[in-house]
Amino acid sequence: DVQLQASGGGLVQAGGSLRLSCAASGFTFDDYAIGWFRQALGKEREGVSCISSSDGSTYYADSVKGRFTISSDNAKKMVYLQMNSLKPEDTAVYYCAADESSGPLLLRLWVLQGYGMDYWGKGTQVTVSS
Length: 130
Hints:
Elements: E1 3-7, E2 10-13, E3 18-25, E4 33-39, E5 46-52, E6 58-60, E7 68-73, E8 78-83, E9 92-99, H1 104-113, E10 119-120, E11 124-129
Parallel strand pairs: 2-11
Antiparallel strand pairs: 1-3, 3-8, 4-5, 4-9, 5-6, 7-8, 9-10, 9-11
């Protein structure tokens, strides 16, 4: 079974940093794309960033570009989201997701539409205080 577990959330002041981790199991990690998504209370889920485990290509939402960095450690089957210069509007539950497909167009599509990946894990809460 494909399993994804996000962790690393917490409470941080505006301007601070957090690193989220996504532990993956049950699939051939190198062949998959992994994405981070978030959903704030009362709002629709939105894409944050995606990475292709096979070639390391990435895509970011405009709202986090330059502040967040996605990376993967294929040997450990882990994907990370380093979040710097956090803002109150970054407050949300963050989820990681995975899909067998990949490619730059798909990475962009998943982030822009906020859904579409096949497998989803439970989220981790990130709260940024002003």
